[in-house]
Design brief:
The complex is a heterodimer of chains A (about 425) and B (about 100). In chain A, about 25% of the residues lie in helices and about 25% in strands. With about 425 residues, chain A is of the alpha/beta class. Chain A has three domains: about 1-105 and about 255-320, FAD/NAD(P)-binding domain (3-Layer(bba) Sandwich); about 110-250, FAD/NAD(P)-binding domain (3-Layer(bba) Sandwich); about 330-415, no CATH class. In chain A, the strands form eight sheets. Chain A has a five-stranded parallel sheet with strand order 5-2-1-9-20, covered by helices on one side. The radius of gyration of chain A is 21 Å and the shape is globular. Residues about 410-419 of chain A have low confidence and may be disordered. Chain B has about 100 residues and is mainly alpha-helical. Chain B has one domain. Chain B has helices at about 25-35, 45-60, 65-70, 75-80, 85-95, and strands at about 1-5, 10-15. Chain B has a two-stranded antiparallel ribbon. The radius of gyration of chain B is 13 Å and the shape is globular. Classes of the chains: A alpha/beta (about 425), B mainly alpha (about 100). The interface between A and B is medium-sized, with 18 and 17 residues.
């Protein structure tokens, strides 16, 4: 009997065990999945918590509910992977042997990595929304905030769900307008990038949306520290930005055990082949989802497309054959724009987000790089899809590899404007 | 992509002026690339640039700012002083290697 071990029962890990349990013969392969948490959170829901749409209970389900029969769920904290012995050690001393290992332990916000961030003002005037605790604390703060200077800030790329801080800024603008207090609030968007987003056409469209909403942008800002006394963020080149309320995306890092096991890069992301997700150092270790050092967005959509590619490849790999399907970095994200509208972006390693229709050419029904109400409902409906179709790895009507069908490669960013 | 002559050396450049073939690089090319962006190279600059090249050759990818700080031991603050505003981009430009992939 061989053992496939999956570390992490988040989006990628849960999808992998559901998909592979259907394909691996039960009399030949055992599957084990390990996670330290007993609950699973719908992470795209964090964005909506500060504005009161969801509370923690609305986005949380028991982990075990999504683990299929025939897969053993182990609850425990991972100490390290001893790759030379094909063994995973847990902090309680348990040793787990594997034949094939999939690391899917994701990325985590680490405010402790920036001096001053997780100190006196943390969860007072310095907030984040990348955990349910942080998003809930920010919701409480926003409910009583009487205005001032709101600074929305990204510490360093890469981050999970790269459009999320932009969406937060758009939703905050809309929220404060609805409450009739937008004129008492200045919103500043501070990014280490040289524009609003990472890819040129989308960056221009999204940058225009910030302008339209009177949100000022400070680019190329690499934070050195948060000054709790003066309530400013200070960059390495000594620029200072004062805040009354700082909503930051802390440094995102892979799990510490990845670093301890010698499998990671400087941010503990597992170094893998970007076509097949196989570790560059061990031929029976893979990494999927945010845990991998892939040069594409860290997002559930990427994990979903990647898992489909991975499942086919994995069956070839264990049969001793070369892996023939190559991942293209396919990502798509709904970007909330506020006022009940959203846009959708679809891209991969080589093609940046373009305007057009998705998933069907012309018919859509969703519009790419353009704000519509339907996209917003698509984003809200996605929560149901996540729990009921995505995690159980049931078929979704979207292809794993990106398609150019329906995309207008000639169109300039001007068409990303409001409809 | 264009072909240019920098410091008497034929080099291939992308649309942003980055070398597309790091083996065409030499120290005279580096000095000229640095001049293009208003930097006169000192020993401290060279320490960073040599690390970026060595690491690129060993790992197959351009090191991030974080990696230059962690592995070469040059504080981030110093890198901002040496290569103002955009140290990761400027170091890779002068070192003749691709821009770091950080932005996805």
């Amino acid at each position: 009997m061989k053992n496939l071990m999956v570390l992490g029962a988040g989006t990628a890990g849960t999808m992998v065990v559901n998909r592979l349990r259907r394909h691996l013969p039960r009399d030949e392969w055992a599957i084990t999945i390990v996670d330290q948490a007993t609950s699973h959170q719908y992470q795209p829901g964090y964005l909506f918590m500060p504005f009161g749409r969801y509370r923690t209970a609305d986005i949380t389900r028991p982990t075990a509910r999504f683990i299929p029969d025939g897969v053993e769920l182990v609850t425990g904290e991972i100490d390290r992977v001893v790759a030379d012995d094909d063994t995973v050690l847990l902090t309680d001393g348990t040793e787990l042997m594997y034949d094939q290992l999939v690391i899917a332990t994701g990325a985590t916000p680490r405010p402790d990595q920036t001096p001053g961030m997780a100190e006196d003002e943390w969860r007072r005037s310095v907030h984040d929304f990348y955990t349910s605790e942080g998003a809930a604390a920010l919701a409480a703060r926003l409910a009583t905030w009487d205005g001032g200077r709101l600074v929305v800030h990204i510490t360093e790329m890469p981050i999970k769900c790269p459009p999320a801080p932009l969406e937060f800024a758009f939703l905050a603008d809309s929220h404060f307008r609805r409450k009739g207090m937008r004129d008492r609030i200045e919103i500043v968007y501070v990014t280490p990038l040289d524009g609003a987003f990472t890819k040129p056409i989308a960056s221009r469209a999204l940058g225009g949306m910030l302008d339209d909403r009177g949100i000022t942008v400070e680019t190329d800002f690499m934070i050195e520290r948060v000054d709790n006394e003066t309530k400013t963020i200070v960059s390495y080149d000594e620029r200072e930005i004062p805040f009354d309320l700082l909503v930051t995306v802390p440094l995102n890092m892979g799990a510490d055990f990845v670093g301890r096991s010698g499998l990671g890069d400087d941010l503990n992301y597992v170094k893998v082949d970007k076509d097949t997700f196989l570790s560059t150092r061990h031929d029976n270790i893979f990494a999927l989802g945010d845990a991998a050092d892939l040069p594409t967005s860290k997002a559930g959509s990427v994990a979903h497309f990647a898992v489909e590619i991975f499942a086919d490849n994995f069956l070839q790999h264990i049969a001793g054959r070369p892996m023939t399907t190559h991942f293209d970095g396919h990502a798509n994200c709904f970007v909330e724009a506020g006022d009940g509208r959203a846009m959708l972006i679809d891209f991969n390693y080589d093609t940046q987000p373009l305007p057009g229709k998705y998933p069907l050419p012309v018919l859509g029904p969703l519009s790419l790089l353009k704000e519509t109400r339907l996209n917003h409902y698509g984003k809200l409906m996605f929560k149901w899809i996540y729990w009921n179709l995505l995690l159980p790895a049931r078929p979704l009507p979207v292809p794993a590899l990106m398609s150019m069908a329906g995309k207008d490669s000639q169109t300039s960013a001007q068409q990303g404007a409001r409809t | 992509m264009t072909v240019a002559t920098i410091a008497d050396t034929a080099v291939d450049l992308d649309e942003e002026g980055f070398l597309t073939d790091h083996t065409q690089w030499n120290e005279q090319v580096a000095a000229q690339l640095a001049t293009n962006i208003g930097i006169e190279l000192t020993d401290d600059h060279w320490k960073a640039i040599r690390f970026v090249r060595q690491d690129y050759e060993a790992e197959g990818e351009t090191p991030t700012l974080r990696r230059v700080t962690n592995v070469a031991g040059i504080p981030t603050k110093e890198l901002f002083a040496l290569f103002p505003k955009k140290p990761a981009k400027k170091m890779s430009y002068v070192a003749g290697v691709p821009k770091p992939v950080g932005c996805v």
